[in-house]
Design goal:
seven-stranded antiparallel beta sheet; six-stranded antiparallel beta sheet; about 35% helix
Amino acid sequence: MAVDISPKNDGGVLKEILKEGEGDELPATGNKVSVHYTGTLLDGTKFDSSKDRNEPFTFTLGQSQVIKAWDIGVATMKKGEVAMLTCDAKYAYGKMGSPPKIPPDATLKFEVEVLGWTGDDISPNNDGGIERYTLKAGKDGATPNDGSLVDIHLVGKYNDKVFDERDVQFTLGEGEASNIIEGVEEALQHFKLGEKSRLKIKSKYAFKTIGNAEFNIPPSADVEYIVELKNFEKGAETWSLEGPEKIQQAKLYKDKATNYFKAGKYSLATKMCMKAVEYLDDGTVDDEISSERNQLLLSGYLNLALFHLKTNDHLKAKGACDKALALDAKNEKALFRRGQALLALTSPEEAIKDFEAVLKIEPKNTAAIKQMAICNNMIKQNIAKEKKLYANMFEKFAQADKQREEEILRRQPDVMRGTLGEWGQEEREGGRDATAFEKENPNILMLNANGTGEFKNM
């Protein structure tokens, strides 16, 4: 029996199931769906068939790549399901039709078989790291944003075995504190209220190269979650707040950052601190609260530098110090932490300048004095290494030059061998034969060898 599945219940799309599908999953907007189909007019005239071509047809659901009736009808079908879709012209090709096969205002019938689909890629970089498969569509409307308080039920699976099942409420962006992986947090920003979806999550958005001992998840493991968004309260958007409200939000996130840092959750501390800075560093704060804003912003950058140093992200630590020093050029903490970052980046000559600046502000800063000693020691070691490197380099150059000279000498002719200095008949005056003495002593030059008697009395 055909059922009206058109959004307005106007009879525009009727669906009759010819063969039941598998499971409970339905394709969702953004999924790439593969189908076989046969299209006919109401009189039974066939105008198109993927089966005749023996080539499945693939399209992205909900992206208007096909007629409206298909986007509506296929979204209600399970894998393996076969259904007959009867499509009114306004959900098909309308008043124009599609000449020459489909006349104007034509009602069409499609027998559609859903072969399968790939998930909706909702990963931040569209790299296939998070795929969503909708089990139950949510209500149209808003979706959670970063900072929203969400109430969810989740089931985590690895190799088809459940490792985590619970109801949990947490603030989006702080899921790590509740052992919620990044992939689930990213996905929830695409969920609608009441939605239930299966998520296939690659390791880079899950437990990464570390794994999870509590859940018995090995390093670099891909996992699945079934997540239902039961309720949520949206977080405040930066653009929607006035100056004093931004100050309050920044203070809230600053306190969270401090608490997470004390608890050893450095990644969360950094994230909260960055959100505090985001509320302050948008250039729209009123003059009357600019002093408080600048002080909070300076504190935020100083904390960011500390957090980055703690996680060995020295380049970002230096960047945070640069921004702090733009607000207060003689800030002792900013100079000291930038010096630490530069030292870790093996730039002792630059680092020592910051520690010297610290001592100009506070001559008794023993920590800066110790850091200067480390800088000087590193500089000396670098100079020694350079000397050794250059000495070895010059030695290698000298050895190479010596080898080249020896090679040149080896290629020179030996004047004591060959025809030079050896008396052959062609070298004697008149071409005479060698004497017995000359034959016995070929390398001795006979001064009177021309037989003239010259040098006779010498």
